[in-house]
């Protein structure tokens, strides 16, 4: 599979994270990332140029859970043929290329996640923001395994001493992938997201990383654009029903 910068970085990262229990299933035209906790299978994702008959069959036969999210570079005509393949719209992949440190905001404190208690706080914020508090314990256990990975760095942002936001940077060979960007509702529109991004990216710039990639939400694009991120690829999002759930 010919991968763009985001896909190449994600592929490299998930290969490296197999030490923490993550998996990669692949063929010559696609790859699927599997989360390290079966109960969190929905965080896995398939990547491909487009969904062909070959990929459709590969996903159906090899993904061991009910539904698979697929990120494709092109829209697939198969969505009009197979009712179990649902198109969910597009999302923007953004890129920042810079060797100049970003301006940090001293109003906020940003700390590196270093232990399991930090992971618990990180997971609590993530699941509060993404509206799945019942998954907090599962995510805490899962992300604790990331402490074994030496290229994955999580941060917690604090507003007046209260843990209020999170961000993760994972280092590929050419680029850093930014994920888990989240701020609690009560602390939004104050500059915390910008502050966390600047802090985390500056630590990577100091290590000679100069390319940063992320997948942007509509709300997030405003913040990312202010930091200099530009659109570089459009992603077509699908959900594929793979295996029926047991009755």
Describe what you observe in this structure:
- This protein is of the alpha+beta class and 247 residues long.
- It has 6 helices and 11 strands.
- The chain has an 11-stranded mixed sheet with strand order 1-2-3-4-11-5-10-9-8-7-6, sandwiched between helices.
- The protein is globular.
What would the keywords be for this entry?
247 residues, alpha+beta, Aminopeptidase, 2 domains, 11-stranded mixed β-sheet, 28% helix, globular
Q: Could you tell me how far the N terminus lies from the C terminus, measured between alpha carbons in angstroms?
A: 37 Å
What would CATH call the class of the largest domain?
A: Alpha Beta
Query: Which topology of the largest domain does CATH recognise?
Result: Aminopeptidase
Order of helices and strands: HEEEHEEEHHEEEHEHE
User: Poorly predicted ranges (pLDDT <50, ≥5 residues)?
Assistant: none
Work out the helix count: 6
How many domain units? Answer: 2
The CATH superfamily title of the largest domain: Gcn5-related N-acetyltransferase (GNAT)
- Main beta sheet strand tally, sense and closure: 11 strands, mixed
Instruction: Give the CA-based shape.
Output: globular
Name the CATH architecture of the largest domain: 3-Layer(aba) Sandwich
Mean pLDDT: 95
What structural class do you assign from the helix and strand content? alpha+beta
Spell out the blueprint of helices and strands.
Blueprint: H1 5-16, E1 23-27, E2 30-34, E3 45-48, H2 53-62, E4 67-72, E5 85-97, E6 109-112, H3 116-129, H4 136-144, E7 152-159, E8 162-171, E9 176-183, H5 192-205, E10 211-216, H6 218-227, E11 230-241
Parallel strand pairs: 3-4, 9-10
Antiparallel strand pairs: 1-2, 2-3, 4-11, 5-10, 5-11, 6-7, 7-8, 8-9
Helix pairs in contact: 3-4
